[in-house]
Structure formats: C-alpha cells, structure tokens
Amino acid sequence: MIQHRILLFIAILTWASSSWSNEADQAKRIHDRIAGVPPISTTLNEMVNKINQGDELDAAFIAIENSNFYNVTLKNFVTPWTNKDQSIFIPLNDYSATVIGLIRDDADFRQVLSADIIYVGNNALGLPAYSNSNNNHYLALVDQGIDLKTGLQATTQSSVTGLNSAAIAGILTTRAASQAFFYAGTNRAMLRFTLMNYLCKDLEQLADTTRPPDRIRQDVSRSPGGDSRLFLNNCIGCHSGMDPLAQAFAYYEWEYNSDIDPTGINGQLIYNNTNSVNPITGTRVQSKYHINSTTFPYGYVTPNDQWDNYWRKGQNQNLGWSSSLTGTGNGAKSLGQELAASEQFASCQVEKVFTSVCLRKPLSDDDKDQISAMTQSFKTSGYKLKQVFAESAVYCMGD
C-alpha cells in the first residue's frame, strides 16, 4: 500500500513537472519571438503563471514590456520601410522612431500616414537638437545607448521641422522618408513604397488596364519602343491609378547641393506653401512633375496637389476603401487618411506582424483564419499594434 502511494506521488510530480516544462517552453517561445532574448527567471515564472491561469495574452504583454522589444524587435521591424533597398542596416531616424513611439504608446496606428506627430529623444537627455538637414539627433540616441522604451517622447512635427501643419502627413513627411522617396525622380516612389509598406501591395499587383489614362503625365511614352500596345497592355495598368494618387506630393521636394553633397544625405524637405511659385512650372507644383514633358506633350500637366483614387473602381475596389471618405482630396495628409482607412491597411499590418513574430508567412487555412480574426481585433481595439504582436506570439507559441 505504501509502495503504491509512493508510485502515485512520483507520477503526480512527473506530470506536474512535465506540465510546467511545457508551459515554460511556451512562455520562452513567446518571449523569444517578441523580445528576441530569453526571459529572466522571475519573468519566466510570471509568464508561466499567466499561462496556467489561461491568460496567454497577459503573458505576451509581459514580454512586450522588455526593452528589447522596442530597441531591437520594433527597430528591425520598421527599418526596412524607411529606405528603397528595404535594408535593415539603416540607423535609427525620425521615421523609425515615430513608428516605434506610436506602437509603444498604443496610439491609433492609422495616424502613421497623416498625423502631425513625430517622436524625438526626451528633452532631459541632452541630445543634439532635431535638425532638418542631418540625422545627428537619432544617431546620438543610439550612440548613448538610450532605451527607446523610455527615451522617446511625442511632439508635433510642425513644431520641430517648421513645416506648415497642412503639409504634414505622419511619416510621409519625416526627414528619412523624404530623403529616401522624394530624392530626385518624380515623387512616384513615395506612393509606391507607401503602398508596399502599408497596403502590402506593389504596383504590379495593383495594375488595372481598365482605368482611364487621363491623368498620366507627359513623361510616360504612349508608344514605348514605337509600339503603342506596350502602353495599352502594360504601362497604363500602373500609371492610370498611380499618377492621380502621386499628385498628392506635387508640392514636395528633397533639396540638396549636388556639388558638395551628390548623394543628398544632408538635404532637407522643401514644401511649396501658398505664396511659393516654382519658376519652371509657374505654380506651386515642383518642377519634377513636368520632367520629360516632350516625351508625350499631350499628356497630363500637373496643376496642383489634388489627388483622386481611380482604384476605388475596377479590381482594386477589393482593397476595401472606406465609404466614409470621398476618394479625392488635396495633399499628402488626406491621401494618407484614404490609405489608412482601407481594409487592406489593417490586414497588411497584421500580416507583417504575424510574419515577424511567427517567422513565416501565413500559409495554412488556420493561419489565414487567424489573420482574419486578428485584423478584426486590431480594428476593434483602436488599431493598437501591440495587441497584434501579443496575439501573434500566442498563436505561434506551440502546444
């Protein structure tokens, strides 16, 4: 009888140990995926207790409190959005710091494309002042090892850059985004990379040859290589929707001295206010919008920054454009609001987080159901992205 009780006691201990081990593995996996480092013992115990109580999400939020989530996970998450090469090896800047700050503060993430907001280092840190012509402020944040979880503070972009508040559109008008996407070219890059980063769609995926070509600029040949079929079957697909949207950026330019700064690294964002007239266009429109005007002289001549969303009809209406907006407006701010109000914006953020946390794209039917559920949760929770990180980590914590 005594031997039987001893064996039973050992079996119970073995089961309890196995159960704790399994939940400890789950807690470690959640912490590793969110913070990128193993939890310390006290944190692990706290997370295991939450899992035991059926509060897996609370366990994930404990991991989110680790500073590494902000200093490493989020920095690596957002940095590729800030440059054309989509490289992770780019220093912290006003674009990446602002995204990190919005996520940290549980802000409505739709603000990222329209709000007059920017995150800078806390005033008490003694950092170099924010500059429109260099990145020294953010380089100092990193060089001094400042914890981004506590070292960032929100302020208005207009107060630190001097831009008119009407010209400001979240990260679209940060110095880093301007340097990357307003540099040279025709400002179409700003639209393309915004679509890639916030709607998870590149232009080829959005190409629709059924949209009217009346807003395609003069620099696009209507018979490339002498063959008009190339324009009708290919070029029109992207440009018919892209050009009327990219018109929102008509007053923006990245200005630099090419003689001493050929890469434009020390340039700054220029916005033509109501009293500004470009000598080449005779309007507020930057000269790059009239570039190569002889390619097709009968093409569209950009007169202002009024944009129109031709993709509200045709195949791209499935992106879920908001019925509360009109699909037209002036400037980058209203365009940012149009993009961020779409269903595709919400599902894109969720899919990016899922891929980052679970280390794979959603492929199975279960994965896709989870993406759908998390997208709905993201919207109903006020577009708070930390919630998506927590839910993704729980889904991928294993059994």
Annotation keywords:
two-stranded antiparallel sheet; globular; 399 residues; 47% helix; mainly alpha; two-stranded antiparallel ribbon
Describe this structure in words.
By secondary structure, the protein is mainly alpha-helical. It has 16 helices and 6 strands. The radius of gyration is 25 Å and the shape is globular. Mean pLDDT is 94; it is low at 5-20.
Beta-strand content bin: 5-15%
Radius of gyration from CA coordinates: 25 Å
What coarse outline follows from CA principal-axis ratios?
globular
Average pLDDT level: 94
For the record, give the distance between the C-alpha atoms at the N and C termini, rounded to a whole number: 36 Å
Structural class: mainly alpha
**What's the total number of strands?**
6
Tell me the major beta sheet: 2 strands, antiparallel
Q: Could you state the order of secondary-structure elements as H and E?
A: HHHHHEHHEHHHHHEEEEHHHH
The total of helices stands at 16
Strand order of the largest sheet: 1-2
Q: Which consecutive residue ranges, at least 5 long each, have pLDDT under 50?
A: 5-20
Question: What's the helix and strand layout?
Answer:
Blueprint: H1 2-35, H2 41-52, H3 56-64, H4 67-78, H5 94-104, E1 118-121, H6 136-143, H7 148-151, E2 152-155, H8 157-161, H9 175-181, H10 188-198, H11 203-206, H12 228-246, E3 252-255, E4 268-271, E5 306-308, E6 328-330, H13 331-340, H14 343-358, H15 365-380, H16 385-395
Antiparallel strand pairs: 1-2, 3-4, 5-6
Helix pairs in contact: 1-2, 1-3, 1-16, 2-3, 3-16, 4-5, 9-10, 10-12, 14-15, 14-16, 15-16
